[in-house]
């Protein structure tokens, strides 16, 4: 009995260093060679991500302008631009419009429509499925300038296609309903990504689980709630993270409404463009951009914490 109780600790002590060594250097490269392999990627990240972010932060602390004396010799003004940004009612109005834009077009529109299409097409084959998927993806891959022109032509008050189809001549959709117009536009434009992601995710749901739920008398909604959603929860949160950030920084709606009328569709991307380039206040625009970056980080951390909480 004494031998049986003493041998297991000895075996554990002998194998533990090997396991620790394997976990710390799984590829067997060593720190030097591993660092050499990672160095190019780190340099690219530093050059195209870290440095621009730090440069924007620096510009936000100056009175740098597009033209004039401040363009040649910008002066350090400290946090003045940031204070002006957060105390400017136009900034908060654009922030609120951006929240509406993200919730309406991304969280509700793209997620809902993308999942609905993926769910309806999950068991279908043939030309109808390929046609629907092709049309949805086509809206996603067309250049922004092209789709913006098409939507302006569609919603135009004089001679617009939508007014001709509905028999409502003179309806100014872009002037009377600018936010609704860009929300519908962005839903139509970006649904393809959600549709493809959910289509792949639904393929991982075991058919036997759905069949068991049907035999148990579960309704369609109960099957989604108790079987489908738990299986694709990670895909849902990943999709929400990506499309929320993309939509938050999307500039395409500016090509349709130019932020108007009277700033009623001036989301944050359009607000930065106006103050930085149209008004020439590059320092102030950089400060607003930094605040937007911080908001994006908060949104990303929120979704990442939700992703980790599922474990």
Task: Write a concise keyword list for the protein shown above.
mainly alpha, 311 residues
Explain this structure to me?
This protein is an all-alpha fold. Helices cover 77% and strands 0% of the residues. It contains 16 helices and no strands. It has helices at 2-24, 30-60, 69-72, 80-86, 89-121, 127-141, 144-155, 161-166, 173-176, 178-202, 207-215, 220-231, 233-248, 254-257, 268-278, 282-309. The longest helix is centred in the middle third of the chain and has 33 residues, at 89-121. The chain starts with a helix and ends with a helix. The model is unreliable at 1-12 (pLDDT under 50).
Q: Determine the mean pLDDT.
A: 87
User: Shape, please?
Assistant: globular
Q: Classify the beta-strand content into a percent band.
A: under 5%
Helix content: over 70%
| Broad structural category | mainly alpha
H-E order:
HHHHHHHHHHHHHHHH
Q: Quaternary state, please? A: single chain
- Low-confidence spans: pLDDT under 50, at least 5 residues? 1-12
From the alpha-carbon coordinates, what is the Rg to the nearest angstrom? 27 Å
Distance between the termini: 41 Å
Largest sheet report: none
Got a strand count?
A: 0
**What count of helical segments does DSSP give?**
16
């Amino acid at each position: 009995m004494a031998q049986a109780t003493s041998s297991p600790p000895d075996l554990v002590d002998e194998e533990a260093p090997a396991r620790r060594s394997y976990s710390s250097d799984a590829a067997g490269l060593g720190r030097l060679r591993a660092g050499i392999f990672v160095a190019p990627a780190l340099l690219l990240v530093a050059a195209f991500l870290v440095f621009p972010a730090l440069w924007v932060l620096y510009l936000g602390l100056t009175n740098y302008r597009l033209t004039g004396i401040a363009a040649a010799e910008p002066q350090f003004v400290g946090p003045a631009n940031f204070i002006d940004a957060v105390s400017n009612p136009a900034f908060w109005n654009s922030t609120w419009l951006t929240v509406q834009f993200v919730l309406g077009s991304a969280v509700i529109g793209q997620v809902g429509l993308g999942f609905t299409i993926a769910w309806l097409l999950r068991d279908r084959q043939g030309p109808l499925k390929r046609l629907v998927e092709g049309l949805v993806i086509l809206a996603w891959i067309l250049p922004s300038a092209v789709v913006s022109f098409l939507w302006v032509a569609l919603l135009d008050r004089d001679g617009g296609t939508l007014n001709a189809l509905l028999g409502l001549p003179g309806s100014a959709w872009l002037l009377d309903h600018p936010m609704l117009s860009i929300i519908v536009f962005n839903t139509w434009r970006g649904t393809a990504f959600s549709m493809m992601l959910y289509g792949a995710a639904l393929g991982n749901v075991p058919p036997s689980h759905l069949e068991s739920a049907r035999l148990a008398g579960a309704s369609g909604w109960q099957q989604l709630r108790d079987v489908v959603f738990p299986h694709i929860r990670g895909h849902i949160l990943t999709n929400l993270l990506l499309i929320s950030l993309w939509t938050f920084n999307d500039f395409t709606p500016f090509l349709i409404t130019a932020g108007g009328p009277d700033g009623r569709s001036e989301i944050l991307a359009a607000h930065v463009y106006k103050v930085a380039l149209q008004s020439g206040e590059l320092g102030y625009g950089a400060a607003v951009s930094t605040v937007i970056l911080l908001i994006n980080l908060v949104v990303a951390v929120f979704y990442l914490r939700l992703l980790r909480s599922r474990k």
